Amino acid sequence: MKTKRNQEGLNMKDALDLFKDKMHLNKGLDKVEIEELWYHELGNGIKNYTEKVDFKDGVLRVRLKSSALREELSYGKEKIIARLNEQLPSPLIEKLILN
Question: What's the whole-model pTM score?
Fold first, then answer.
């Protein structure tokens, strides 16, 4: 006996989006994407001083090795948030905390 299949064509992007939604993978994938974006957008200089990047519930927490760098980046938090959100499919970062 043959099963009835959906006759509508589903492109790969839609199929992957459906899979991510069903398996509740979006939060984890967003976290990985934002961490990679932090290193890519802020460059190697920042990468060398970054100990940990964590994203949860709209808050990006970044632990830095240098207090001087932390102070310097704290003046441009809004600009950093805007720059990172521009690269994402939808704005996810609401707050940046530098430790």
Answer: 0.79
